[in-house]
Amino acid sequence: MGWWANLRQRCRTCSRVTLGAGVILGTLAIAFVMLTAGAYGLAWTNTEEFCIGCHEMRDNVYAEFKGTIHDKNRSGVRAICANCHVPHEPVALVLRKMAASFEVWGHITGKIDTKEKFEKHRYEMAVKEWTRMKKNGSQECRNCHHFDAMEAEKQTEKARARHAKAQAQGTACIDCHFGIAHKEPDGPGPQELKIAK
Predict the structure, then answer these.
(1) Residue 1: pLDDT over 70
(2) DSSP, res 60
(3) What would the pLDDT profile of 37-76 be if each residue is shown by its tens digit?
(4) Interatomic CA distance for residues 194 and 131, integer angstroms
(5) pTM score, two decimals?
(6) How far apart are alpha carbons 27 and 45 in whole angstroms?
(7) pLDDT (tens digit, 9 = 90+) per residue, 122-160?
(8) Which terminus has fewer CB within 10 Å in the chain: N or C?
(9) Side-chain half-sphere of 50: how many Cα atoms within 13 Å?
(10) Using the 8-state DSSP alphabet, how is residue 190 labeled?
(11) Rounded CA separation 125/116 (Å)
């Protein structure tokens, strides 16, 4: 602890300006390290490798995702877990990460650690995700899919009419497009959910 005693001795002889500048520089250095570590942590927890790191995700929903249009398609554009399940906006992203940290408890306690347990809770988990997506207008879908970029003439007449209606009414994508990357659970779909926005 000689360095601490040495620092305290020097601070006694420092001017207030020097001491204040040292405190500010130290605070900025700590803030920079924390911000960098936080950004790295957020980026790391958005990787596919992180998401499928536990067998509950790898053996269930990720296995279902493989081969879907969001995994393989003619354009080669591929979505990963975070593209659909994590908001891109900074505040919403941090709030979602905080909420997800509570979901770790299910992993620790083995709530869904077998296929049977996972299936038992599938509908409950789907409703939670549908609710989140309905509340934000399926923003994660709209980060990649834009009504104004759609080539309506390449859609069926039915799809064209439904997309026009959805755009006019501000309908969430998840109301119609659910079960496209994961097995659809038994029970009412997102259209039947009454969500207070």
Answers:
(1) no
(2) I
(3) 999 999 999 999 999 998 999 999 999 999 999 999 888 9
(4) 9
(5) 0.78
(6) 27
(7) 999 999 999 999 999 899 998 999 888 889 889 999 999
(8) N
(9) 12
(10) G
(11) 14
Q: Which two tokens mark 100?
A: 């997800």
In a 13 Å sphere around the CA of 84, the CA atoms on its Cβ side amount to 21
Residue 184's nearest CA partner among 176, 172, 196 is: 176
Per the listing, tokens 């003619």 go with: 74
- Mean pLDDT across the chain: 89
Within 13 Å and on the Cβ side, how many CA atoms surround 123?
7
Label residue 192 exposed, middle or buried (CB < 10 Å: 0-12, 13-18, 19+).
exposed
The rounded Cα 179 to chain-centroid distance in angstroms is 18
Distance CA(146)–CA(53), nearest Å, equals: 31
Instruction: Give the helix ranges, DSSP H, for the chain.
Output: 2-13, 16-44, 48-51, 55-56, 62-65, 81-85, 90-109, 115-135, 139-142, 157-169
Q: Is 150 helix (H, G, I), strand (E, B) or coil?
A: coil
Residues 6 or more apart whose CB falls under 8 angstroms from that of 175 comprise 134, 166, 189, 190, 191
Tokens of 30: 């700590």
Question: What angle separates helix 16-44 from helix 90-109, to the nearest 10 degrees?
Answer: 60
Residue 67 tokens read as 């081969």
